[in-house]
Amino acid sequence: MLNMPETDKNIVVDRYSKRYKEFGYSPKALGWDKGKQDLRYHILFEEFNLENKSILDIGCGFGDANKVISQKTKNYTYLGIDIVEDLINEARKVYKNKDNIDFIIDDFLNTKLDKQFDIVVASGIFNFKLQEEDNYIFIESFMKKAFQLANDGFAFDFLSDKVDFQYEHTFHSSPLKILEMGYKLSNNIILKNHYMPFEFALVVFKDNSFTKEDTIFKRFKNEKKYYRFY
After folding, report:
1. % of residues, the chain, pLDDT over 70
2. pLDDT of 51 above 70
3. Are 72 and 50 in contact (CB under 8 A)?
4. Residues 86 and 18: beta-carbon distance below 8 Å
């Protein structure tokens, strides 16, 4: 399994530690605008039933995915993982009285997790151009491990390359390439590009099964939003 290069890891830790010292507990410390962070997590979670589910949040920052999850259900367990110690220490303060919420400081690709999770998400972690590794190889390694760990599926978001301007330090993913990576894992996937013009999300479901009679995914048929049209 590919590990994040030390040079890139140090750059990320230094960047967010400096922002945390400047902005404290704020979306600005993570490079987000207030409100958009919640929208991104809503997009990642909206295709999943969160009731009594276990959730892994990669690059969790302050763990504020819990603000979105808790609006949908109170019955869940959450593990946030991040390489930035300052962010995890703050997250532990914010959610110290929540027995269902836990955090670890570690590199997702390098750490050995001894359990499965129902849902795996990651928001904003693929937005910076790596210095010592190909970003697409890095992304695909995350996808493969997340898929192995997930019972229901995973959802990641990305900056899109369908833009007319890019900063030198940011990485804008091709939706077509990301979609192709998703199809290597499952045929039951969703690419979302309807919520922001310059970002998109990929949702990959673990359950590929369908009924031969109507060739409709069983997972889709079991969702409340499914209706018979024939």
Report:
1. 95
2. yes
3. yes
4. no
DSSP count for the chain of H helices, then E strands: 7, 9
pLDDT-derived band at 34 (thresholds 50, 70, 90) equals low
- H helices within the chain, ranges in order? 6-23, 36-45, 65-72, 85-94, 135-149, 175-185, 218-222
Q: pLDDT (tens digit, 9 = 90+) per residue, 74-107?
A: 999 999 999 999 999 999 999 999 999 999 999 9
User: CA-CA distance, 95 to 215, in Å (whole number)?
Assistant: 44
Query: Which amino acid, residue 37?
Result: Q
CB atoms within 10 A of CB 84: 24
Kindly state the DSSP code that residue 29 receives in the 8-state scheme.
G
Query: 6-177: which CATH topology?
Result: Rossmann fold (3.40.50)
At a CB cut-off of 8 Å and minimum separation 6, what does 134 contact? none
Count of other CB atoms within 10 angstroms of residue 29: 22
Q: State how far the Cα of 203 lies from the Cα of 182, in Å rounded to an integer.
A: 8
Phi, psi of 139 (to 5 degrees): -60, -45
Please state the pTM of the whole predicted model. 0.93
The pair of structure tokens assigned to 136 is 């697409």
